[in-house]
Amino acid sequence: MKLSGRGRGCCVAGSRERAPPPRSPFVHQLRLSPLEKAKIAFMTLTLFPIRLFFAAFMMLLAWPFAFIASMGSDEQELEKPLSWWRKIVDVLLKGIMRLMWLAGGFHWINVKGRRALPAEAAILTVAPHSSYFDAIPVTMTFASIVMKAESKDIPVWGTLIKYIRPVFVSRSDQDSRRKTVEEIKRRAQSGKWPQIMIFPEGTCTNRSCLITFKPGAFIPGVPVQPVVLRYPNKLDTITWTWQGPGALEILWLTLCQLHNSVEIEFLPVYIPSEEERKNPALYASNVRRVMAEALGVSVTDYTFEDCQLALAEGQLRLPSDTCLLEFAKLVRSLGLKPENLEGDLEKYAERAMKMKKEKIDLEEFSAYLEFPISSTLESMFALFDENEYGIIDVREFVIALSVVCKPSKTLETIQLAFQLYQSEKGTILEEDLAHILKTAMGVSQINVTHLFRAVDEEEKGEITYDDFYRFAELHPHFAEDYLYSEPVGDGSGLGTSSLPAPNGICTDFSPENVEEKRQSLQKKLN
Q: Were 241 and a residue from 28, 183, 271, 299 both cysteine, which residue would form a disulfide, CB within 3.0 to 4.6 Å?
């Protein structure tokens, strides 16, 4: 797969060129200068422990108020509209929470625009979602949120969560998503409940773009108020993505900053058209466009599932500039359905083996995939047209599809690749291994000489899959040892979390229950 010589985009064959896709929204690069490191070292010994103590104290101080307000009430009582005395508790808790953020260095919070009344917009859609510090607008508004049911059992935090009467999502309930959407719709249309705040991206990003919005907030078909977040700080210690500094590092670095800025802008209420009411995906897309324009960023078709691909813990970790995220996006746009992907992979692999080393043009690629020629198909073809000759090696498409289909099963993809590239003797050359691995990682160039020589112990100049498998069993971290010139990750010098934790409040604030997906991801990471 090829990267444009002018950037990380992929060129379209011929004279036309596609605009390069945005950098991966799931990677946060944080590089500290020697002066910044010295400042952080000083703050760690002086300001950090004081701020941490007061922030924790304020959270503990809020607990008894929330506990008293909830005491003696059953689940049904907690889900009724606010009484007058709970409104007083609201004011006290908002003040305590504001002091907590003040202790964390957020000395002032810049609010733009006017927050709509619940009668004007029952749902607040907030983006971009990039950190657990995105809880700031939640504590300012005490709007209801969407949380997994298990959260209410967390000491201290669970009591505060229950107080704001969230919509609870149960992992054990097979019908959870439908019930969640129905509850959001019921509250939104009742006119009595507080507003519901939802982060429609469903996961944390680096704010370089807005990824695909999940439709849950838009299914009720009621007006929403878009809310955009900005963190205009010189050093971005706020962002907590799937690849980059971990949760504790972000907390430490942020509390070590003398001042942290945040801007919350309430945009005009978006009233859906009749077409948008009938089509939640269209409604979500149009609201996202409005928010992207307000932020001055692009939109991208990347999704939470792309995040899973970027983080799958096979032996080959995808670098931050991989083209495979772009490829996965095109696979979805083309219409290849996830539930049928493994069957499609087998079909395309079988056809590729019959074609051997034969290269094909765009029309033949269209016939091979059984899809008509379209701009999406042309873009996919261009990813593999390395020299812009108008022809591609379809084996590279099969390898890329295998990675997207089975991102954590590296050896299965490599075994399939060996079957595609091997000679009659069942061997491949160093050049073949280079083609296989650069395609599997979605990069333009890769040096496999060191790895090939390590596998080729008898110095025959060729290797079999059995040779590679035995080597991989003995060296499970062969990619880090033999392929990467530097650790794959954020390049910050702070290190990348080996096990990315659930990012802040991204799952909890999405009406779509993605907990099962997150569990699947964790299984891949273990």
A: 28
Residue 386's pLDDT is what? 79
Say what the pLDDT of residue 157 is. Answer: 77
So what's the pLDDT on residue 486? 46
Rounded Cα–Cα distance for residues 181 and 517 (Å): 18
- Classify the C-alpha dihedral 31-35-36-38 as positive or negative: positive
The Cα–Cα gap between 224 and 143 comes to 13
Which helix (H) or strand (E) is 343 found in, with range?
helix 341-355
Non-local CB neighbours of 76 within 8 Å, separated by 6+ positions: none
CB 171 within 8 A of CB 149: yes
The Cα–Cα gap between 264 and 107 comes to 14
**For residue 224, which of 145, 303, 118, 81 has the smallest C-alpha distance?**
118
- Residue 322: the pLDDT is 76
Structure tokens at 230: 């900005």
Strand partners, 464: 427
pTM, rounded to two decimals: 0.69
pLDDT for 432 equals 92
Between the alpha carbon of residue 215 and those of residues 171, 233, 281, 290, 343, the distances in Å are: 19, 31, 6, 16, 28
Q: Which contacts (CB < 8 Å, 24+ apart) does range 269-276 have?
A: 269/116, 269/120, 269/121, 269/223, 269/224, 269/225, 270/121, 270/223, 270/224, 270/225, 270/226, 271/223, 272/218, 272/221, 272/222, 272/223, 276/218, 276/221
SS3 of 148, please?
strand
Nearest-10 crossing angle of helices 394-405, 430-441: 50
Q: What is the pLDDT of residue 314?
A: 63
Give the start-to-end residue ranges of the domains of the chain: 34-302, 308-484
Residue type, 525: L
Q: Which tokens is 477 given?
A: 């971290």
User: What is the 3-state secondary structure of 68-112?
Assistant: HHHCCCCHHHHCCCCCHHHHHHHHHHHHHHHHHHHHCCCCCEEEE
The torsion defined by the Cα of 48, 50, 56 and 61, in degrees rounded to 10, comes to -160
Beta bridge partners of 502: none
- pLDDT mean by block of 10 residues, the chain; 526 residues: 41 34 74 94 96 94 86 55 76 94 94 94 95 93 83 78 80 70 83 86 90 90 96 95 88 96 97 95 95 93 69 64 81 78 89 88 93 92 88 93 84 91 92 90 84 92 93 85 57 35 34 38 35
Determine contact, residues 240/204, Cβ cutoff 8 Å: yes
Cα distance between residue 172 and residue 522, in whole Å:
18
CB 365: neighbour CB atoms within 10 A? Answer: 22
Maximum distance among all Cα pairs of the chain, rounded to whole angstroms: 83
